[in-house]
Amino acid sequence: MNPAIANLRFISQTGQEIETLIPGLALLRIGVFKDYPYLYEGDLAYEQNYLKIYSSCSQAFVFSVFDGDRMVGATTAIPLAQETAEVQKPFVDAGYEVSRIFYFGESLLLPQYRGLGIGHRFFDEREAHAASFGSYTHTSFCSVDRGPSHPAKPADYRPNNVFWLKRQYTEMPHLQCTMSWLDIGEKQATEKQMIFWIRGL
Ligand SMILES: CC(C)(COP(=O)(O)OP(=O)(O)OC[C@H]1O[C@@H](n2cnc3c(N)ncnc32)[C@H](O)[C@@H]1OP(=O)(O)O)[C@@H](O)C(=O)NCCC(=O)NCCS
Predict the structure, then answer these.
(1) CATH code of the domain covering residue 101
(2) What is the pTM of this model?
(3) Residue range 70-81: average pLDDT?
């Protein structure tokens, strides 16, 4: 085992147990999502409120990574039926049975912990959690579409698409929604186009 990984602790939590993770999760989201393609100007109060969606759902799942007492990574999942109307809508419109889909939220790792296989573990753990109920047929997540030539795109930017294809997810251009947030350096929140990816369980 990679010595860097051997020193980390991995914790799975569901439903109400997730409440204690919220402050760490909020900080991690703000820290990781400030980078392209998210460019998210985080708001701690908003984050703490938003993340209650997980602690208030008994089937919600958070798999987190700790280095000592510090949360350095985490990934989330929740039944699509418990997600917001804007996330459910494209599936409803396309004729999917929402109650059969488990939705994956964020995957977050501080940069120094990337490239060690933890991203694969994030998928393994969430897919196993979704399968454990025996009632879900698909897992899905969405990705922000910043277009081919956004000015903030770093020259060495490595998209996650290759990774997601390797995990047998298919990009579904007809399944899209918009989400609104404040980009770093902007004064007003703007809508972003989100594209869903899906895989059979
Ligand atoms: C997405 C993320 C969680 C992946 O975590 P990770 O632990 O680095 O991923 P892994 O080490 O398991 O690698 C997964 C795949 O990514 C690719 N990859 C990882 N590091 C890479 C690198 N330095 N160069 C090229 N490809 C790389 C590989 O395809 C790898 O698969 P392989 O090992 O089968 O070849 C992490 O990169 C991250 O936090 N990114 C920022 C936030 C984000 O974009 N989240 C996803 C959407 S919410």
Answers:
(1) 3.40.630.30
(2) 0.96
(3) 98
